[in-house]
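Board notes (copied after class):
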Amino acid sequence: MNEILNGSEMARTIQLAIAPVFLLAGIGAFLNVIAGRLARVVDRSRHLEELHGNAGGDELVRYVQELRTLEKRMSFAARAIYLGTASGLAVCLLVVVLFVGELIDFNLGDAIAVLFVVAIALLAGAMILFLRETRIAVAVLHVREELLLLESELRK
């Protein structure tokens, strides 16, 4: 290990290691959005579970269909959170490796490149799952036709 870094070298080392923290902040914001969507899906599914027991006929069919859709959305959101969190952890490890590599003046370029690629690949996977979840949500987003009709139109 080399001598302790002087002030300006330490500042440069910290700047180098902190740069990926901006990526980490973006990942955190992304995870916050997904977690919020997951919470809303969970709340809706709990509400439908309560209604399910007292429903019958067409209403029961609608509840079951929506619960199945919500189950898919929860699965995609949970997996997106898993991959996003793994991406964030890879970025944290990247920061440590960058800092330690500079601190001990050791070339860890290959490890840094691999960690960066892994972090971005995990983030891309999380975004793909998020896209799938939102596509499902939009695909089933519709108001039932009978709710859009005025009372006078229903009598026709």
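Comment from the instructor: The radius of gyration is 24 Å. Residues 24 and 92 are 8 Å apart (CA to CA).
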